[in-house]
Specification:
The protein has 246 residues and is α+β, with helices and mostly antiparallel strands. The chain folds into 2 domains: 76 residues, Translation Initiation Factor IF3, CATH 3.30.110; 107 residues, 2-Layer Sandwich (Alpha-Beta Plaits). The protein is built from 5 helices and 8 strands; from the N terminus they run ααββαββαβαβββ. The strands form 2 sheets. The protein has a 5-stranded antiparallel beta sheet, with helices on one face. Strands 1-8-6 form a 3-stranded antiparallel beta sheet, covered by helices on one side. Helix 3 runs antiparallel to helix 4. The longest helix has 26 residues. The radius of gyration is 33 Å and the shape is elongated.
Length: 246
C-alpha cells in the first residue's frame, strides 16, 4: 500500500514539472523577464528657473521675568502688537500660523546650597508668516521689530513658489527632449532603428525652501531692510524605454 502511494506522488511530481516546462516554453515567465530587458532605456533631466513669489518668515517673542504670570503677560502683549503689525502691513490672518510655544524655568547652580535654584521663567511664542508681496518684506520685518521691541526674535526666512505647475511643465518638456536625443544617439551608435516609447516614468525633485538666517541690528535703519528673493531651480527626471524596430 505504501509503495502505491509513493508511485502516485512520484507521478504527480513528474506531471507538475512537465507542466511548468510547458508554461516556460510558452513564454509566460521568460517572456516577461525578456520584455523588461529589451529596448533602449534612457534617463533624462529637465530644469526650469523660477523667481520665488512667497517669503515665509519665522518670528516671535521671547520674554523673561521672575514669575510665569509676568513673563506670559509681557509675551502676550508683545505678540499681540507683532500680529497687528503683520496684518496692518498686508499679511492675511490665514497666512500666520503658530509653530512653537513654551514656558520654561530659568535656573542657575547655587554653589553654597549645591543645587539648582529657579531664577525666573521664559515664555516663547513663535509663528510663521507668509508674505506674498516680497517687495514689501523689508518694511514688514521693520514693522514687526518695532512692534515687538526688545522681545522680538526673528529666526529665519525661506523662499518658495506658490504654484510651480508651469515650471514643472517646462522642466518636463526639457527632460523628454533630453531623453529622446540620448535614445536617438544610442540607436544610431548601435545601428538599430528607434521605435516608440514602451515605458515612461517621472521623478519630480521638489526644490527645498531657500533658508536665510536673519540678523537684525538693535537700531533699525532708516531705509527698509533689503530682501532679495533671487532664483530657484526646479528639476525633474524621466526614464523612458524605447522599442527597437530591427
Amino acid at each position: 500500500m505504501q509503495r502505491k502511494w509513493l508511485l502516485a506522488i512520484g507521478l504527480a511530481l513528474v506531471l507538475a514539472i512537465v507542466g511548468l516546462s510547458g508554461c516556460n516554453q510558452g513564454g509566460s515567465l521568460e517572456g516577461i523577464i525578456s520584455n523588461q530587458q529589451e529596448g533602449i532605456w534612457v534617463t533624462g533631466q529637465g530644469k526650469a528657473t523660477a523667481v520665488p513669489d512667497i517669503l515665509t518668515l519665522s518670528l516671535g517673542i521671547e520674554a523673561q521675568a521672575e514669575s510665569i504670570a509676568e513673563a506670559q503677560s509681557q509675551a502676550t502683549e508683545a505678540m499681540n502688537q507683532v500680529m497687528t503689525a503683520l496684518t496692518d502691513n498686508g499679511v492675511a490672518e490665514r497666512d500666520i500660523q503658530t509653530q512653537y510655544f513654551s514656558i520654561r524655568q530659568l535656573t542657575k547652580w547655587d554653589r553654597e546650597k549645591e543645587e539648582e535654584t529657579v531664577i525666573g521663567y521664559e515664555v516663547t511664542n513663535m509663528v510663521t508668516a507668509k508674505i506674498r508681496e516680497i517687495d514689501k518684506a523689508g518694511s514688514i520685518i521693520d514693522a514687526v521689530v518695532e512692534a515687538g521691541g526688545d522681545l522680538t526674535r526673528i529666526n529665519s526666512l525661506s523662499f518658495s513658489i506658490d504654484d510651480p505647475t508651469a515650471y514643472y511643465e517646462e522642466a518636463r518638456e526639457k527632460a523628454m527632449a533630453d531623453v529622446k536625443a540620448k535614445a536617438e544617439q544610442l540607436a544610431d551608435l548601435a545601428g538599430v532603428t528607434l521605435g516608440k516609447p514602451t515605458y515612461i516614468s517621472e521623478g519630480a525633485q521638489i526644490p527645498p525652501p531657500i533658508y536665510q538666517r536673519v540678523i537684525y541690528e538693535e537700531a533699525a535703519p532708516a531705509a527698509p531692510t533689503p530682501i532679495s528673493p533671487g532664483e530657484m531651480e526646479i528639476s525633474l527626471t524621466v526614464q523612458v524605454a524605447y522599442a527597437i524596430l530591427n
